[in-house]
Amino acid sequence: MCVFSFGQQKPSMSKFEVNYLVKFRADTASTHVMLQEYVSLLIGDEESLFKSTQKAIYDSLTLAEVDRSNKAAKNGYVKIDLSQIPTAKFKPEVFKKGIALTGYNELLKTVYAYPIEEKIIWKILNETKTIQKYKCRKAIGKYKNREYIAWFSEEIPFSEGPYVFKGLPGLIVEVYDTKNYYHFDLIGFKKVEKPIIPSQPQIQTEYSKFVKARENFLADPNGVFESQTRFKIPAKDRDRLAKMHQSNNNFID
Amino acid sequence: MKKIILLAIFGIAGLMNANTKAETHFDNEEDALVMQCYTYGVYIHCTDEVVDDTICWGEGTSLPTYRDAVRCQTRNAQLMTAFYCP
Predict the structure, then answer these.
(1) Inter-chain residue contact A87 with B82, CB threshold 8 Å
(2) CB B84 to CB A69 under 8 A?
(3) What is residue A133's three-state secondary structure?
(4) Does B12 touch chain A (CB under 8 A)?
(5) Long-range contacts of B67-72 (CB under 8 A, 24+ apart)
(6) Most A CBs within 10 Å: which of B73, B84, B85, as the mutation test of the A interface?
(7) HEC string of chain B?
(8) By CB distance 3.0 to 4.6 Å, which of A167, A250, B10, B16 could disulfide with A231?
(9) β-sheet bridge partners, residue A142
(10) Average pLDDT, chain A
């Protein structure tokens, strides 16, 4: 079902953009496969938005490709091929307004939004190192039962960082969990004005309800897909598709 | 060999009224005065197959304009591609 939003407020503008590279393991059983993607953190006066850079590119390019395909219809038939447009691999977004964090995540292209209640309590250590040109201090904290190590720089005085990793007295330049399942590295930092626009959610919910929906999907990916779309998955594809979706089991949350 | 595997309606774009004339053209981006429907195929590159869908927009549907139809079509194509070839 298609849902559109109207009457949106004028977005606030960023003052800075921080780009990170995230490397992550989507499947804990697959020890040698690390995915990687560029992600962006837009920082404004009262708001910030963290999301995959590829996500916006993908949406824009696919929309243009569908329009182009429609206009190139042969005998009234349109064929859409999105295979040349890389998809975003890192799906979650985090929007910060004041001190409130909102997470955005998707299941089968349905965007869920939920408040992020868990706060990271950081412990700042005396250890320092220089990353790129920035003098950084080490901090450790816990989020969703994972221990994280963050390196932040007070030379960049924003209490900001990728994803939910915020609240230190300087920008986080590098952060990773102790198993190195998720590893963010700063790539660039620049002044830039861009609109801060989080994804448009179809479902406003709580985190626990999003997790339940995801568990239901992983228990029966084909069944959930079929019930949402009324498309019948052919028997030859069912096992492969179920295993493929179930291998995506290492969520950062 | 590319195969068309199924005529499916995934993601209902609009309900077709049998008494309403359905037309197909893509150059009118204004609100449609009559319902317009078209069939499109989404190429699933990892299985080398095409899945068909039909979309209707304009009067009598939940998609008033061609732009709305394109957005809906895009979402359906993204969904199908993401499910088969994530």
Answers:
(1) yes
(2) no
(3) coil
(4) yes
(5) B67/B29, B68/A2, B68/A4, B69/B13, B70/A63, B70/A66, B70/A67, B70/A70, B71/A2, B71/A4, B71/A63, B72/A2, B72/B11, B72/B13
(6) B73
(7) CCEEEEECCCCCCCCCCCCCCCECCCCCCCECCCCEEEEEEEEECCCCEEEEEEEEECCCCCCCEHHHHHHHHHHHHHHHHHHHCC
(8) B10
(9) A147
(10) 93
Check: pTM over 0.80? Answer yes or no: yes
Q: Which residues from chain B sit within 8 angstroms of residue A58, using beta carbons?
A: 78
How high is the pLDDT of residue B2?
45
Summarize pLDDT for A119-162 with one digit per residue, the tens: 999 999 999 999 999 999 999 999 999 999 999 999 999 999 99
- The verdict on a CB contact (< 8 Å) between B81 and A63 is no
User: Closest approach of chain A CAs to the CA of B4, in angstroms?
Assistant: 11
How far apart (Å, rounded) are the C-alpha atoms in residues A139 and A179? Answer: 16
- CB distance A76–B38 less than 8 Å? yes
Asked casually if ipTM beats, i.e. exceeds, 0.85, the reply is: no
